[in-house]
Amino acid sequence: MRSIALTKGVPDFSDGAVSFDEDGHLERGKTPTVMNPNDHFALEAALQTRVRHGGHVSGMSMGPPSYSSVLEEAMEAVYSDDSYLISDRALAASDTWATAITLSAAIEKYQEEVADVDLVFAGFKTADGETGHTGPQTAWCLEWPIVTHVIALDIDPEEEQLRAKRLVEGDVDEIETVEAPLPCVVITDPEFEPTYRKAAHRLEHKRLRAETQERAVDHDDHLTTWGHADLNLDPDYIGLDGSPTIVSSVDPIPKAPSEREATMIDPTDEDGLEQVLEECQPFAAGD
Amino acid sequence: MTQTKPVGGLEGEYEHYEAIVVGCGPGGAAAAARLAAHDIETLVLERGTEAGSKNVSGGLIYAEESAPYTIEDLFPNFRAAAAERPVTDYQIHNIAGNKVKTVDLTDLHEHDTEWCDAVLRRHMDSWLESRVHELTSETGGGVLTDVRVNGLLRENGQIVGVTCDELDPITADFIVAADGVNSELARDAGLMDWAAPEEWFQGVKAVVEMDPQEINDRFGLEPDEGIAHLFSGDLFEDVRGGGFLYTNEDTLSIGTVFHLDSLVAEQAEPHELLDALLTHPLMSQWIGDDYHELEYGAKLVPDSKKVAHREPYRDRLVLVGDAGGQMQAQGPIIKGMNHAVTAGALAADAYMLTRGNADPEAPGRRYTTMLEQSGTMAKLRPRRYELTSPVGEHGLVTRVTEGVLDSPVGSLAIGNPLAKRLLPKAYNSPFLVGMLPDTQTGYTTLPAIIAEQHGRTVHWENEVEPPSLEERIGDLTYNTDVGNPHIRVLDNSEAASGAAVYACPVSAEDFGGGCYRSETVTTNGSEETLVSLDTQPCVECGTCAIVADTEWEHPRGGKGVEFRQG
Ligand SMILES: Cc1cc2nc3c(=O)[nH]c(=O)nc-3n(C[C@H](O)[C@H](O)[C@H](O)COP(=O)(O)OP(=O)(O)OC[C@H]3O[C@@H](n4cnc5c(N)ncnc54)[C@H](O)[C@@H]3O)c2cc1C
Ligand code: SF4
Predict the structure, then answer these.
(1) Is A209 on the interface with B (CB under 8 A)?
(2) Residues in chain A within 8 Å Cβ distance of B168
């Protein structure tokens, strides 16, 4: 099995890391970049396939050169064998459509020059754009089948088939089991859980972890960077020119006014507490 | 007990390894290392998140001159990499109130001893785990942690493999149960039961932080020296057992080991007994002013004299170490780890010698013979103990001797100057110590009289304030398996399970935050005391498996308490 796991960097939105300017706009320069949290599940699914069936996993990302750190994070976290970074000034400001075209071109180049690919894994959506478009559009460009919202995955290498459980959210959540031929694009759901119920698989997992830890130290030796020229794409289809979506402005949603009138009460102040109780009394019945 | 389940999976078959070792303590590590040396494909399954994270020992690991294997034979560089300080000095303190008579036990300690080092189990076992993984990986196997074996896989009534919480069932040609005290495999095989408290000890221990230089100064040691102090006498009231203090690199191990039946009979609180030791004036010279406890832990210890299984096998399963009751209490000296190592290695050799034999019990039989011929079984079950104990432990005899000793004449006999000279000699005789029956006389009365008659009074102030049980529990690390308790009380009446309220090392009569609590309920006008259980603070010591009416299992792999020191 050979898989490509797509990943990208997003601003680290965790407390303490993220930085906003006075108007509430994200300060990208001051906010560190981390691997998109949802991609973790995609990489776990790729790893599970690798552990169970052997083969190779490549991490792939399109973005600025600094995204090599994201690919390194991917390598450490889920033991990818090598990394491919698609990076070029001409690709800057791509929307999801231009990104999908670029990524599918990169996957095709990979197939021509590296090896045939059985599976492409992608996370469900990114923490910064929240669109969830890139994976499906990439599948469309490749003309491959796609299975989304995958929470469990089984591959039958002989039959070149996959069987997946999908979480279908609705009035009632349902779990749907689907089959698809390989090659296929798999979009994992955040509920995806890898399972390793064979000792041999767990031993392989452990072996890969040890092997990757050594490899990740020299991540850049395992990194291939492709630019616009390598992919040989029509400039009209990439970057800003190839992006039909224009984000005209980003407006921070004003926070709910928090400065309501508040009376501070010392928890040791019995009278004060009594007053709190009295004030709450009218609402006690749930009105 | 878990039923064996039919397996799914694509192949519809069981996974198979030539050998499976359950548990990666000293017994399992030794078995696996030896199997790997014989180039036998070996899978080791350990329920802790890392080997050692579930284990507690005192602990001094002995290398006996007479043993066929020592841990350093199997794991070169063990002493330098995994052990703490060597024990170069060994003393016992007989205590009566503030009076203390110290006897040097170095001779007894050095009898048949090539070397002896203090160890902390997390450090030791995790080091062993990585070595064992390297060795067994070469054979196509390896060590898996976070995997709990929950039972035996049988085919036509014959044991053929193991079942696990985390993995599909696995078959093997040879299965080593090195899963320690409260071995679920030994129980499933019908080889051990968990019924009688008199067959077990309970060990409780605190690991105390101390700067290495401070240790050298306070104990009068060079950096490459260590000391063992033992304590007996009346500081534990009438509970049969004793205390210990061992020096590590930068910590002290201080603990107690008591007969479980005695704890139950005296309704003693284990943590209070530990505190009695910690706060005794004698201790102030070592830990008096700044006491910082890193970890509180506990574990049952089998008494080999009573439970070492004489034929520790069934079908292709063999029991090794504590799982087979191979834990020798030689008077105050506790030898479990070294015997687990010997037994593990012998079991592996036995399999190698009988490999290919169609009879699945051939390795077990050979192992039994090797335990006998190597003299191991004789140490675990000394014949002289079997001859003396029926008399010695008989209640009447105890009462009479106690009476004599308590009488002025009796104490005088021990108190005379001749006795004073003979004392160290008697204590240092492995023969006499091995014969000392497990009665109050040996543990409390005699040491107390010795101290009374020959002891010096210590006047030091001990300012140690041991942490409360609540603080001790608060300092432990847990990965709680929420909604899936590993112990269930079957009979919650006071009579059936009330003993656990005090005998459980993380419960106490007057403490609502422990595992076992007793509560008084009134039904139809009559008052009744009932026992309830919350397994969250459980340190998996195994005590309530014996003293209460429970359905007792270990938590799933990686769940439950995680010891950092051990
Ligand atoms: C307070 C105290 C002081 C002691 N002092 C000493 C001393 O000074 N010297 C000495 O030699 N001995 C001492 N002992 C005894 C000693 O600790 C034991 O005899 C020794 O650890 C036995 O080794 P073992 O390999 O048989 O079992 P253990 O060391 O208990 O190892 C068993 C292993 O199996 C794993 N396991 C258990 N169940 C399962 C399962 N179902 N599935 C997977 N894995 C499982 C456990 O996590 C553990 O790692 C002391 C014990 C205590 C409690
Ligand atoms: S609940 Fe049982 S096993 Fe757990 S610590 Fe208490 S006595 Fe030990």
Answers:
(1) no
(2) 197-198
